[in-house]
């Protein structure tokens, strides 16, 4: 069977699951939110990384149904965690095909309603390249989503060639610095200056800035010194199964 055929089957058979990676306040270490990350353990293929199957799901249009499953499952999980941690927020990755689908806003609304999750507790992550592929359509779609009260985030920032003029017009709340910028060893010299510039740019535009891919203490220290308020990465916490994250959330960080 093709990967495409397998994906449809996988959705029906319940082979997808979600892990969650914490978003952490860098000054206190507090977990303020989680990002849902899809996983597929295929009984025939073994674990298939999302980078391999999300593009196929996009081409076939199945991403709309997979995305709906992600929205509903993660919203329900976040609502349950908020019983213990009332301020916890949820980030969900959204692909371009999903964003442009006429049903998308209704899907988001339904997932929130069924889970009993307030819209302000959900952030939708869109990559810079998706937002840039059809800027006018993206802005219109984002504006509609924002009316629902959900927050919007630019994922993988710095890799998608947005112009500063366009960035200013985008109705978004958060900017996630692509991990390629953070990964450069200890963040010194030009690399550090570049990250400082992105952090400052985000703050000037009034955005919440999240550094992705923090892998060591030196990077964490550097980001703290730059005034970057939030981060994610293996050094803080790996993507984690929901059962294991529950304990961390109860403890507070
Ligand atoms: O978790 P991992 O690093 O393997 O993710 C690889 C890529 O897959 C990332 O770009 C991430 O944004 C994307 N991804 C993970 N989960 C989802 C999801 O639920 N929906 C979409 N559209 N992309 C996802
Ligand atoms: O594109 P997006 O930011 O959604 O991708 C998130 C992916 O990044 C997750 O699938 C996760 O597995 C991966 N990731 C999270 N933290 C780190 C990290 O510290 N280093 C690396 N290399 N990948 C990470
Ligand atoms: Mn993401
Ligand atoms: Na990213």
From TrEMBL:
Every EAL domain range: 1-253
The protein, known as: Diguanylate cyclase (GGDEF) domain-containing protein
């Amino acid at each position: 069977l093709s990967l495409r055929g397998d994906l449809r089957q996988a959705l029906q058979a319940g082979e997808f699951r979600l892990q969650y990676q914490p978003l952490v306040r860098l000054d206190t270490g507090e977990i303020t939110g989680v990002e849902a990350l899809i996983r597929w353990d295929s009984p025939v293929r073994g674990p298939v990384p999302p980078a391999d199957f999300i593009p196929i799901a996009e081409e076939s249009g199945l991403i709309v149904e997979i995305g709906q499953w992600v929205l509903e499952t993660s919203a329900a999980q976040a609502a349950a965690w908020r019983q213990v941690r009332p301020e916890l927020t949820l980030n969900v990755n959204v692909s371009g095909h999903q964003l442009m689908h006429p049903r998308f806003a209704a899907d988001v609304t339904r997932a929130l309603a069924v889970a009993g999750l307030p819209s302000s507790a959900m952030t939708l992550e869109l990559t810079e390249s998706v937002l840039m592929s059809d800027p006018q359509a993206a802005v219109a779609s984002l504006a509609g989503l924002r009316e629902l009260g959900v927050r919007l985030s630019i994922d993988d920032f710095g890799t998608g060639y947005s112009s500063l003029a366009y960035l200013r017009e985008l109705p978004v709340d958060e900017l996630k610095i692509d991990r390629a910028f953070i990964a450069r060893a200890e963040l010194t010299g030009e690399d550090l200056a570049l990250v400082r510039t992105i952090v400052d740019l985000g703050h000037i535009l009034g955005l919440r800035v999240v550094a992705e891919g923090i892998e060591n203490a030196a990077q964490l220290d550097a980001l703290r010194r730059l005034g970057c308020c939030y981060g994610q990465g293996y050094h803080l916490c790996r993507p984690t199964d929901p059962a294991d994250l529950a304990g961390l959330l109860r403890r507070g960080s």
